[in-house]
Amino acid sequence: MTAVIEVNSLTKRYRDTIAADNVSFTIEKDTIYGLLGRNGAGKTTVMSILTAQNFATSGDVRVFGEHPYENSKVLSRLCFVRESQKYPDDATPAHALRIARLFYPNWDQDFAERLIDDFQLPLKTRIKKLSRGQLSAVGVIIGLASRAEITFFDEPYLGLDAVARQIFYDRLLEDYARHPRTIILSSHLIDEVSNLLEHVIVIDRGRILIDDSTEALRGAAATIVGDAAAVDAFTAGREVIHREALGRVASVTVRGELTADDLARLTDAGLDVGTVSLQQLIVRLTQAAGGAIAEDATASREPSLDIESATLDKEAQR
Amino acid sequence: MSTQTMNSRPKNRTLSVIRMQMVNRATYLWVPILVLGGSLVVTLAIWGILASAGVEGPLYGGGAQAPLWYFAVVGVQALALTFPFSQAMSVTRREFYIGTLLTAAITSAILAVIFVLGGFVEQATDGWGLNGYFFYLPWVWETGPVGAGVVFFVIAMLFFTVGFWAATIYKRFGNVVLTGTILAIALILVGLMWLAGRLDAWGQIGAWLAAQGALGLALWGALLIAVLAGTSYLTLRRATP
Asked: First and final CA of chain A: distance in angstroms?
C-alpha cells in the first residue's frame, strides 16, 4: 500500500474552539474512507486543510508527498466540493460543470451527463434558486465526474431523498470499480454508508477516536442482554462503552471480540448476544469518549445521536 | 520537495481562471455594456430636451462613469463569490489572483476601446448633432485617443482593484478590520488635507494636478492600482474560502 495523504500532529485552533487536536493519520491509495463524526467534530476543517483551502495552526500535512499549499501539481489531483460550497453569483449548474471540466484533467463529460440525468438536475436554473438537494447534486456530480485521484465528499447527501442517495452510492461504487481512486466520504449517516467504506476514521472534538478497517470494526463490540446481575457479572473487567437498563434487564455493550469460550459462558448464563452495527459502535464510543457512559433509563434502543435533527441543524445553518 | 513544483505547474490553469470568470458573460460584458448604453440613452434624451429648449452647449455628461462604478461591484463579486468556487476547483490562490486581474484588464481594455470609439463618433457627429459630449471630454483627450484610452483603462482597473482589495480584506479579516482600514485611510486623507491647509499649499497642489494632466494622473492611478493589487495578493495568500 502507498500512502497518498500523511497527516502528522495536525492542530487547528479557532478563537475559542479546537477543530483538530494533534491529529495524525495516513490515507492509502485507491481506498474508500469514511470520515465520520458529529457535526462540528472537525471533519470539514481537516478536509479543507488537506486541500489547502484552510491553514493548520501547527503540524504537517503531505499529499502525494508534498505540501498542498499553492501547489497546483498536487491540487489538480484533488477534488473537494464542500457541503456549504459557494458558487459564482448568477451561475447555473451548466456554468459550474463547464468550469469544472476546465480544471479537472480526468473529467468525464459522458459520465457527468448521465449523472445530470440520474439526479434530474435542472441545468439552466440559477444555483441560488436550487433546492438543497439539487445543490448537493451539483457538488456530487462535480466530485464524481472529476475522477480526481483523491476525491472528498463532504456530507454529499444533504437534502437528497432516499432514491437520490442510493443513486449516489451506486454510481460511486460502479465508477470506483472501473476507475479506482481514493475517496474520502464525510458523513454522519453512518449506517447508510457503512457498506461502502473500506476504512473508517472517526473524529470527535478534534481527536481521532477510531482509525481502523471496516472489517476489523465488525465484531469489535457486542451487546449482552439479559438479567442485570448476570450481565454485570459477565461484563466485569471488560471495557463497557454503553449500558442501559429497564427494571431487572440490562443491555451492556462491551468492546472487544467475544471468544468461543465467552459465547459458551453466555449461553450457560442464559444471556443473549446482539451484534453492534458500525453506527451503534461509533455512537457509543463517541458518547463514552464524551465522559459519561450514557445510561438510558428508558432503555431506548435508538442511538441517541439524532441523525434526523442533526441533518436539519446543518440545513438550518445555511 | 515542494519548492520544485512551480516548474511542473500545469500551464493553462491561469487561462482557465479567466474562462471561469468569463463563463457567465453577463457579469463582465453585458451588464457593463448595458449600464453604459442605458446611461448614454438617458443623457442623450436630456440633451435633446435642452437642445429643444434652445441651450447651445457644448454639453458634457458624467453618465460615462456609470459602468466604472459597476466595475467596483464586479471586483467585489470576483472575490467574494468566485474565489470560494475557485478553491473547490483546486485552483491555487496565485492562479486565481493572476487570472482574475487579467480578466479585469481584458474587460477594462474593452471598455476603454468603446470609450475611445465613442469619442471618435462624437467628434465626427459634432456631439450627436446636439453639441453634447459623453465620451469626448477635452481634458481627457488632450493627449490624443491613445492617451484617452489609457486614462479610461486605468480608471476602470482602479475601480475594479478597489472593489477586489476591499473584498479581500473582508474575506480574510472580516467586517471590523475592513471598516477600520477604510476609516484609517479616510483619517489620513483628512489629515493630509488639514496639513495642506496649514501649509497654505492648496495653490501649489492645484497647479501640480493641472500640470500632470489626465494622462499624468492616470499614471499615478496605475501606481495606486499596483499598491492595491499587491496588498490584495498578500492578503489573499492566507485567505480561506
From this structure: 39
Spell out the domains of chain A, with CATH numbers in brackets: 3-216 (3.40.50.300), 221-310 (3.30.70)
Nearest chain B residue to A105, by CA: B10
Give residue for cell 496649514.
B198
Q: Which domain holds residue B163?
A: 9-236
- Name the domain count of chain B: 1
Nearest to B93 among A70, A80, A96 (CB): A70
- pLDDT of A294 over the 90 cut: no
Beta strands in A29-170 (DSSP E): 32-36, 58-63, 78-81, 150-154
> Would the pTM count as exceeding 0.90?
no
Report the chain B residue with the minimal C-alpha distance to residue A78: B90
Give the helix/strand (H/E) hosting B154.
Answer: helix B145-173
Whether the complex's predicted ipTM is more than 0.90 is answered with no
Name the interface residues of B facing A (CB cutoff 8 Å): 1-2, 5, 8-10, 13, 16, 19-21, 23-24, 26-27, 77, 81-82, 84-85, 87-95, 237-238, 240-241
For B24-58, what is each residue's pLDDT tens digit?
788 778 888 899 999 999 999 999 998 888 888 78
